[in-house]
Amino acid sequence: MALNSPGKNHLKFMVPVCIFLFLSGLFAPFVSSADHQFHVSKSLLEYKAADQSFQVSVNIFIDDLELALKKSGHPGLFLCTEKESPEAEKIIFDYLRQKIQVKINGAPASFDWVGKEPSDDLATIWCYLEITQVPDPASLFVQNEILMETFDDQKNIVQIIGPRQHSGYFMFQKGQAAETVQF
Q: What is the C-alpha separation between 145 and 113, in angstroms, rounded?
């Protein structure tokens, strides 16, 4: 899929996504992190020409991530608390490397860990990654399967901002978790 000017298909997709995000934000103060009704993550992959890198931001509900990590053999991480395990960042990074796959110009890309922080409401965690040494990306393949092994209804919203500010949005779900874009 080429990232050019928005067309009719882009608008048909964006209206439901915008409504979903608006309603999610509207009802967020009434949803406790221990009992939310939807399972969604959001990610941004943004190309920075000056640095020749993709900066990656991933936002996930903390309780959902802890459940997924517990099921994979890592209980008691206490993410974003004073009792957080010293191994938490490494475990999260390993999990994200397994669940997010990126190819740039057809070649597999690897991530560097930048860091993490809780959201202001402490319901979600922001994880920051970077893909370096990307001089001139012409295509980008993204597969995002975050939490899909844990929740059948998991949705992963991915925004891509490529070279020359070409942008696109995707909503991934189980069985449809990958997309290739051309810049």
A: 18
